[in-house]
């Protein structure tokens, strides 16, 4: 009896090891990696028509679906969302217009309200892996980012290539090109100055936003936004896979982290590396060298079981390190944080690092998980704090 139990247990272990080895083999292929990293085929809005934003809780004509052309020729599906008070003021005209997908966004009254208002502010929203512009906690998030000024804060959200109705296959280069195209549309078609644009991002979107922020900061002349908010960022993909668990429970490569040689070998197969720690450092160095003003806010919940909050602490350190000629070690920064950060009790803690040109803020919340936090008041406060830092008269 004991022998049979041992035999069946051994067979079970062998099967599990074989399945895991097979998974590792699949993870070395670009096709499978793309599906694991981006989860772009998991839409979560299969039975809802994105061209009818009203079914997601928006008012008639408040949200305009349209498309933006990427530099590689693909079409990116997007929503322009009006702030609620501005909608109230123009409700009759907006209700009178047809709703649904706009072949020409510039012909819509909602677009004109954005383009023709010199006081308009725009949130460019870069969402996380999986889903579409209408999935999960993203809709409450759109309301949270504009709640502080419901007359002037518009939201522009879009699906990267391969997500939802956006054409193409996701890749690091492709997503960066998509985000650059969206920024170009905002500044050139909608005519919004970069100083009145805030980049909001979450999860994989934080890697995209940092890549785009770095790209524009390195242009001549540089283009710097009002600020960037990163919710649940990660250090880089190699570090992420050592901690990431699918659905919070199924590890990917974390069991192999105990075997550095094997893990380092498998890491060479990672196609899209998303080196956020390096990009945030380069972005800050560029702004400091150019004397450009910048605002960065990093937000993470301690109970985030998708991306542990330690990632934000490391990214924050790389950002701070880039502001100092001689740098600062992680342990040295921890000592500074111990003395300087504000303990908010059950709300978490806040640490701000100020230079002559910029403000880098880290907010570690006690609760909020990976997605729920996006609808929290802390998001509204972060948006208003950045816009008011750029323009104190913005209320």
From TrEMBL:
Q: Does the keyword Transmembrane helix apply?
A: yes
Recite the UniProt keywords alphabetically.
Answer: Membrane, Transmembrane, Transmembrane helix
Membrane-spanning residues: 12-38
Signal peptide residue numbers: none
Q: Does Membrane appear among the keywords? A: yes
Q: InterPro entries of this UniProt entry?
A: AB_hydrolase_1, AB_hydrolase_fold
Q: What Gene3D superfamilies does its record include?
A: alpha/beta hydrolase
Every AB hydrolase-1 domain range = 123-284
Q: What is this protein called?
A: AB hydrolase-1 domain-containing protein
Report the source organism: Alectoria fallacina
